[in-house]
Amino acid sequence: MLGRVITTKVMDGRARIVCSRCKKNRYIEVPSGLNGKLVRCQCGVSVFVRFDRRVFPRETMSGRAMLVFPNGDRSPVYLCDYSLGGISFIFPDPHKGFLAVGQEILIQYPTLQGESILRRIRLKTLRANRVGAEFLGYPED
Ligand SMILES: [Zn+2]
Q1: Residue 43 sits in the same domain as residue 77
Q2: Does 82 share its domain with 19?
Q3: pLDDT, tens digit, for every residue of 4-58?
Q4: What is the 34 CA–ligand 1 centroid distance (Å)?
Q5: How far, in Å, from the CA of 78 to the mean position of ligand 1?
Q6: Which is it for strands 4-11 and 46-52: parallel, antiparallel or unpaired?
Q7: 1 pLDDT exceeds 50?
Q8: Which residues contact 11 (CB under 8 A, 6 or more apart)?
Q9: How far is the CA of 27 from the centre of ligand 1 (A)?
Q10: What is the pTM of this model?
């Protein structure tokens, strides 16, 4: 018997699945790179879940990145999350005064494939140590 296939969105590394029979909600962890998984509800219904990252491409990222200032200074930051349009990160306290909303800066970070990428960003939000930024243009070499 063929199981049902549903497509569900992934947000922050988790997907919400609603059982078609008992209507029970559950959240499952979705490792990056996983495109689908057979999920079995406690009521016995199995469903094959496809994970759609295109609808909500924001994913939780962790790891270190490097800000590259126009004068060549570099400062380490900690990535929070990432989408096609922007990126957010934690900026360690001692350097906080160097950042301002509207500032353009380069950020170097590892992609999920393990490559190093350098992109131009514009800072949009500064809240405590958390910085949100939008990407400008395309990746640079
Ligand atoms: Zn169920």
Answers
A1: no
A2: no
A3: 888 888 877 888 898 888 999 999 999 888 889 999 999 999 889 988 776 444 5
A4: 23
A5: 39
A6: parallel
A7: no
A8: 56, 58
A9: 13
A10: 0.53
76 and 102 belong to one structural domain: yes
Q: How confident is the model at residue 113 (pLDDT cuts 50, 70, 90)?
A: low
Same domain, 67 and 136: yes
Residue 46: give the domain boundaries: 4-52
For residue 123, what is the domain's CATH number? 2.40.10.220
Instruction: Please give the distance, rounded to the nearest whole angstrom, from the Cα atom of residue 53 to the centre of ligand 1.
Output: 24
Check whether residue 88 and residue 129 sit in a common domain. yes
Q: How far is the CA of 11 from the centre of ligand 1 (A)?
A: 22
- 86 vs 95: CA distance, rounded Å: 21
Angle at 71 between CA 67 and CA 74, to 5 degrees: 30
Q: How far is the CA of 132 from the centre of ligand 1 (A)?
A: 39
CA of 76 to the centre of ligand 1 (A): 46
| Cβ contact 51:30 at 8 Å | yes
> Are residues 132 and 65 part of one domain?
yes
